[in-house]
Amino acid sequence: ARNNVVKVVKSKAGDKVGLPCCHEIPTSESLHHHRVYWQKNTTVVVLAYVEGKKMPQDKQYENRTEIDTRNFTLWMSPVEILDNGSYQCIVQRLSSSLSGDSVVLCNEPVILFVTADFSEPNVSAEVSADSCELTEMVVRCSSHGGFPKPQISGALNNEPVAWNVSWVSESSLSPYNITGKLKLNVTKDSDFNFTCTVKYNGFTKSSSLLLSR
Fold first, then answer.
1. Would the keyword rRNA-binding be found if you checked this record's keyword annotation (predicted)?
2. CA 125 to chain centre
3. Does residue 107 sit in the same domain as residue 151?
4. Is residue 2 one of the residues assigned to a domain?
């Protein structure tokens, strides 16, 4: 039995990425005896060759995809967030007989997971109310332009704090902007160190702000 572990390829937006195919043709054979289809979500033609001729492809992949004519690796550059998804490599060998039958040599999915970097978090604080002993402050942390949906965590003098978080994204495959907000009552004559950390797909970005009252 074949193991059904789906291949996952990770990439960053803007990079070049190669998606492996499930079949390689020996040097003695020619691309002209094969059909190769790379498709996305089983409907969109990313790149296809039939008997060595390139077939029409979906517009979003024009001029940024190429195929290795031996092992059929699909190269994509530059990668975009919209490229996230499931791809399939289908290879058929064409029969040399007149009946024209073809044999499917392989048909396997590959998942492409594209990450986009968030900006360095911007931490700012402003006084919202002031009395003799206490100052009420609002601290904000924001970061933008990344993918996938991030998590945000904060610390005040190394003690964890819970941000009031809001996200903005135009669609499920658009960059995210994230903002965390925190209200604090602080006593005068004390120093505060705020740290804000944004996490996404195993990556983290952190920034700190030191305040003296």
1. no
2. 31
3. no
4. no
